[in-house]
Amino acid sequence: MNWISNVVPPKIRSFLRRETPENLWVKCPDSGELVFHKDLEHNLHVVPGSGFHMRMPVKQRLDSLFDDAHYESLATPDVPQDPLKFRDVKRYTDRLKEYRTKTGDPDAVRLAAGRMEGVDVVVAIQNFDFLGGSLGMAAGEAIITGMIAAIDRHVPFIIFTASGGARMQEGMFSLMQMPRTTLLVQRLRAAKLPYIVVLTNPTTGGVTASYAMLGDVHIAEPGAVIGFAGARVIEQTIRERLPAGFQRAEYLQEHGMVDMVVHRKDMKATLARLCSLFMHKHLENAAVSAQADAA
C-alpha cells in the first residue's frame, strides 16, 4: 500500500495513476532477455538477441504473408457446437464462447486467399490460442474448405500448423477429421496442386499424424516442437534418455522428416518461390500434355 491508495480520493487517484499495459515487456523463454513489445512486433515476434520464435498472432502472420497485407478472408462452414454434450469443470459450449471472445475467431483455423509475391495462394492458419489449436469438427471443416477453395481456384494450398492434437471434448468426431483431411490432400495431389505445410511451435498429436506430415514440402520454424507423443511419455515408455534436441525442427531436418528450417523473416519469399516453381512446372506439364493430345 502507498500514500496514493491510502490518502488520495479515488476520483483524483485516477488522474495520478497512469495505466501501464501488462505486456509492455516480453521475456524470452530461451535467453531471459527482456524485449519491448513494439520491437518484438516489428521483428515478427522473433526475439532479436536469441532468435527465439515467439507465438505469432494470426492477423499479423497473414499481414506479413500477403502482398500489401491485402487478402480475402474465406468463410468456414457451421458445424454442431457440442455433439457429445461434454462437460468437465465447465460446459464445452461455455469454453467455446470464452475462446471466441478471446480470439475473435469462430474456431482454431482461419482461412485467407490472396497474392504472395504475385502468386495466388490459399492459406490456412491454425491458432494455438484457441483451445491449443486442437483439431475438432470446425477446424477440420475449415481445413477441408480451404483445400476445396484451392482446387476450385487452381492455386497452391499452404497451412501453418500449431496444435496440441485432437479435441477431446468432441471425441470420435474429432478423430474423424484426420482421415477426412487426408482424403482432401489426395484430391489436391490429383489436381496437381502444391500442398505446403509450415510446422510452427508446437505441432503434435493427431495433427502430426494426419495432414501436417502429408505435404509436398515440409517447412519448420526454428526451434519448433514437432511430434506425436510428448518426449516425457516416450522416455517413460522406452525407458531411455532421448537425444538432445529431440522433436525440435533442426533435429527433424537432420533426420529427414522436415525439408527445411526457415527463419520467419524469410518465410514469405521461400513460400512464394516454392509455389512459383511448382505452378510453373505444372503449367509446363499441362502444355506438354495438350501438345501430345493434339498430335
Summarize the model shown.
The chain has helices spanning 3-7, 10-16, 37-42, 58-65, 92-103, 137-153, 171-175, 177-190, 231-238, 249-254, 267-294, and strands spanning 25-27, 34-36, 71-74, 109-116, 119-126, 157-163, 195-203, 217-220, 260-261.
Structure commentary:
- By secondary structure, this protein is of the alpha/beta class.
- It has 2 domains: 21-54, no CATH class; 56-294, 2-enoyl-CoA Hydratase, Chain A, domain 1.
- 39% of the residues lie in helices and 16% in strands.
- It has helices spanning 3-7, 10-16, 37-42, 58-65, 92-103, 137-153, 171-175, 177-190, 231-238, 249-254, 267-294; strands spanning 25-27, 34-36, 71-74, 109-116, 119-126, 157-163, 195-203, 217-220, 260-261.
- A 7-stranded mixed sheet has the order 3-4-5-6-7-8-9, with helices on both faces. A two-stranded antiparallel ribbon has the order 1-2.
- Strand 4 and strand 5 (119-126) form a beta hairpin.
- It is globular and about 80 Å long.
- The termini are far apart.
- The model has no long low-confidence stretch (mean pLDDT 90).
